[in-house]
Amino acid sequence: MRDYVAELMGEVKAKNPAEPEFHQAVQEVVDSLSVVLEQHPEYRHEKILQRIIEPERVIMFRVPWRDDQGNLHVNRGFRIQMNSAIGPYKGGMRFHPTVNLSILKFLAFEQVFKNALTTLPMGGAKGGSDFDPKGKTDFEVMRFCQAFMCELFRHIGPDTDVPAGDIGVGAREIGFMFGMYKRLKNEFTGVMTGKGLTWGGSVIRPEATGYGAVYFAEEMLKTRKEDLKGKIALVSGSGNVAQYTVEKLNSLGAKPVTLSDSTGFIYDEDGITREKLAFVMELKNVRRGRISEYADKFKGTVFTPVDPTLDHNPLWNTKAQCAFPSATQNEINEKDADNLLKNGVYVVSEGANMPTTIEGVHRFLQAGILYGPGKAANAGGVATSGLEMAQNSMRISWTREEVDARLYKIMKSIHAVCDRTAEKYGTPGNYVNGANIASFLKVANAMMDQGLV
Ligand code: NDP
């Protein structure tokens, strides 16, 4: 099976050159699947993996728009419709200058497996643009979003493909895009998730990814008869996922002590309390400022700027028991993983997508810590998007308590299926194998049922 996997990876690299993030995401999944491919030759005969790796459709388009000074800009827009075996395409949109085909294909690939774990009927997709919302006025962001939707609208729909937010795409951007879709199609449908509460959005959707990552950590800790109470937690990022991770950690009695953005990180030994978090939310969501302002505001807090000459991130070299990477891909390398282990971290629950390099993941698995990979630990966001779609279809709204209870139940079930599957396939406690195998089986079996498509 080693030869089969090596040959497959050779093909992936040859067919998709210059896409290192995509290669990494595929490698991580196929590494988990050897035992399944051994036991089920039918998946090899039917070339299920080769088919899963190839997107069903890649849409790439130009997005011309004008800034407030009348200057013209041309950005690139994408939508990767990866797999629709178990439901309409579903996945976020990312607006960030680093966005390219490799990053969106890795995210779309991960999304297929993540969505399969949620228990809801959703296929996988991802999209976005190399547009940078940072430093743009609201009018500029609106003009960009409208120009973007002028092309995207013909490829999406409530039963076809339902985009949501991701890095750089929050409530403001979803609103602008939804407004333009509605105008172009002359219909009010649940074509996007993360909508405002008065126009089809679901309560708890903004909170869901962060809350879910914390629920997943609690479930992992339960297997050792422990909980989060009194534990010190490192959180990276300071956007949507990081903010609600901090909120839930506080409510479960843990002490979050760090937050970051692309300029550096803050360390607050006394803990980022509810009141301090309210400051961060205003800083990041309203004023769109830098995290260093936190250290100016709260005495005793240290801000450490990013040092590009370092081979590690000092945020991960801090004493703690838990870590919640919630910024971006590959933010924990093997040195960072070693530092985390050295500092006493034994619970890692990934709010971000693929925040740990393959070498870093191996360190965590070798150390036998509680390591929840993103496709399982951060699935609460898309799961609650699925709940938003269900409410839109039924034209009803559930209460906060109802949605939170469903989210909690889904995270518990994702944990249970990963745990059970890892055990069944001979690697107890390995949530990477558990998540990859359980989700692969679901998607692969659906594809087998549907014939050669
Ligand atoms: P936001 O845009 O709200 O926040 C992103 C945060 O990460 C910001 O603090 C940003 O800092 C930081 N960041 C982004 N890129 C980089 C970079 N290259 N280097 C350093 N810092 C960076 O995004 P989200 O919170 O929504 O997303 C965070 C992660 O969670 C992503 O990996 C996303 O794919 C994942 N995720 C999100 C879900 C959701 O529901 N939103 C669902 C599942 C996963 P700065 O502002 O300085 O750029």
What report would you give on this structure?
This protein has 453 residues and is α/β, with parallel strands linked by helices. It has helices at 2-15, 20-39, 41-45, 48-53, 101-117, 138-152, 171-185, 205-222, 240-251, 274-286, 292-297, 334-342, 358-367, 374-377, 380-394, 400-424, 431-449; strands at residues 57-66, 72-83, 89-95, 124-129, 161-164, 232-235, 255-256, 258-261, 264-267, 302-305, 322-324, 347-349, 370-372. It folds into two domains: 2-188, Rossmann fold, CATH 3.40.50.10860; 208-377, 3-Layer(aba) Sandwich (Rossmann fold). The protein contains 17 helices and 13 strands. The strands form three sheets. A five-stranded mixed β-sheet has the order 1-2-4-3-5, with helices on both faces. A five-stranded parallel β-sheet has the order 7-6-11-12-13, with helices on both faces. The chain has a three-stranded antiparallel β-sheet with strand order 8-9-10. α1 (2-15) runs antiparallel to α2 (20-39), α8 crosses α9 (240-251) and α9 (240-251) packs antiparallel against α10 (274-286). The site of NADPH dihydro-nicotinamide-adenine-dinucleotide phosphate has 22 residues, from α9.
